[in-house]
Amino acid sequence: MFLTLFGTVVIAGIVGYLCEKTGFTHNGYLQSIIICIGGAFLFYFVRIMFGFGFSSPGMNAIAASIGALVIVPFHWRK
Most buried in the list 27, 40, 42, 68, measured by CB within 10 Å? Predict the structure, then answer.
């Protein structure tokens, strides 16, 4: 379980970096990585508590990271 959590953080960091590098977001590298890691943590613990998500933890991390990058910046914009 600990290795899954560590892998989730690593995958979320990579997704945050790649989304910023490719121009998908314009938050800044550090901000995008923090948003992705937060979303991946949240989805990881929701999966543990309630048991729903994709079958692979890697797909959960990727989906949660991209979802967090889409939701968080748009929520705070006017």
Answer: 40
Residue 43: left (phi > 0), alpha (psi -120 to 50), or beta?
Answer: alpha
Q: What are the helix (H) ranges across the chain?
A: 2-22, 29-50, 57-76
| CB within 8 Å of 57: residues ≥ 6 apart | 4, 7, 8, 44, 47
Give me 49's structure tokens.
């508590």
Amino acid identity, residue 42?
A: L
- Cβ proximity of 34 and 42 under 8 Å: no
Query: Is there a contact between 8 and 61 (Cβ–Cβ < 8 Å)?
Result: yes
C-alpha count within 13 angstroms, C-beta hemisphere, residue 68: 24
Q: Give 10-43 pLDDT, tens digit per residue.
A: 999 999 999 999 988 888 899 999 999 999 999 9
| Cβ neighbours of 13 (radius 10 Å) | 18
